[in-house]
């Protein structure tokens, strides 16, 4: 879609999956000063000890006791996902994840020699997977459950009772759990619960997180993960032989983001909350569109079948007729053809223009289908 958009003028792009805000200045300055002071060499493969300590402290403040030696710093959350898949799937096996899902999971699992299997999460359930259906999809090859909450592309937050049930399944069926929580800072109804805090998870769960979305630091490529000690000994091998370490100035930037003023990041969360509420209220009024109230992240996943088009045709026609980019749902799994993903990653004035254009579009296509 981004490529096709180059043929049009004044396009509003609701396709980009990263904060549109730049990294706050105090973070950039701290990293620059550290680089000038000599922080330009390889970092320790497990990650800068000061950064791991600061992460451990911030996790403790949020009620999670994770010592620095159980934290691995990675090249973005992607680095953590690659490392855990390569550590646990070297002799094959299936990873089970709810669909719709972040599309890169299939590659992370496939590159490691495993297979991604999916279980349907339904629009009618707010895209919350049903634990009994998840368990029904487990077979003798299943090694791992891969969860993402708050979710990309749905904006759904898995509730505590669903996580309780999934944790119980993981223990009973002897499955490892990877919990991708890169959008945890953007949870609109209070802190997003984590499966990590459920009984039995300390030895079988890895949480993947990142500085990318929380601190508007996608380009610095710093992520992290934490989990059981036995796994940490494996992850460090993958990290040290694939990337050596995450970027040293990037890790110093992460440290500054963790230790410095929180206001710029809170302002970002407030802004995404405001934008998501606005977009939801506009979409909910449009004929031929169905959308769930977003609970987190900055995405919405709308059912466009009322337009008579699938998500791909919808996205192409919307671009052609109204110059708005959205992402076709099938990107997030074959069952997602009736959907589009909307990212609230442009300022309010551009979002208002995009919503006016979509409303006009739906008045033409939504009422006649
Ligand atoms: C669900 C999910 N996990 C992981 C990532 C990767 O994040 P990072 O930039 O930290 O590699 C993304 C990026 O869009 C994502 O949406």
Automatic annotation (TrEMBL):
> Could you give a GO molecular-function term held by this entry?
transaminase activity
Superkingdom is Bacteria
Q: Name one GO biological process term.
A: amino acid metabolic process
The UniProt transmembrane annotation reads: none
Pfam families recorded: Aminotran_1_2
Q: Where is the Aminotransferase class I/classII large domain?
A: 10-357
The record's keywords, sorted A to Z, are: Aminotransferase, Pyridoxal phosphate, Transferase
EC identifiers of the protein: 2.6.1.-
CC cofactor: pyridoxal 5'-phosphate
- Its top-level enzyme class, in one word, is transferase
- Family of this protein: Belongs to the class-I pyridoxal-phosphate-dependent aminotransferase family.
The molecule here is called: Aminotransferase
Protein species of origin: Oceanidesulfovibrio marinus
The upper taxonomy is: Bacteria, Pseudomonadati, Thermodesulfobacteriota, Desulfovibrionia, Desulfovibrionales
